[in-house]
Fold PTS sugar transporter subunit IIB.
Amino acid sequence: MIKLLRIDDRLVHGQVALTWTPSLGADCLVVANDKTAKDEFLKMTMNLAKPATAKLLIKSLDDTIKFLSDERSKNMKIFVLVNSVPDAAVLANAIPEIKSINFGGIRGKEGSKLISKAIAVNDDDIAVIKELLAKGIELEIRQVPTDKVQLVEALI
């Protein structure tokens, strides 16, 4: 069962390990990122940052879709992490179970604008956000679980 899909360009870090994972009761973190799946150094650093209470899987987007679609994953409490809006959309389009996406942190890049204190999006991201909203997927911003929910649609 997918507990949460979170967009955070840092992927696994303190907030994920110390607040989100226990709050969700997650026993499996899945980093869905093509680059990280191929980079042994990044995989090692993610493993160092993960909480001791959860298994960490680092997979490409395609392999993540296969994993989340497999019946054997249904008994796990899965916290999925991606680092971009387009990657979140790929998963949401492929996995009907995903009804909500948490925006945790997206640093500014050229052509992006801040829509909250920790979320910067560009025009391409906004186009994908609008497609997700049109499909009825809730898009919410919270850095940590105790933050008040901000809806992305009110900020773009």
Summary: The chain is about 35% helix and 25% strand. Residues 2-154 form a domain with the Fructose Permease fold (CATH 3.40.35.10). The longest strand covers residues 2-8. Helices lie at 14-24, 34-38, 40-49, 61-69, 85-94, 123-134.
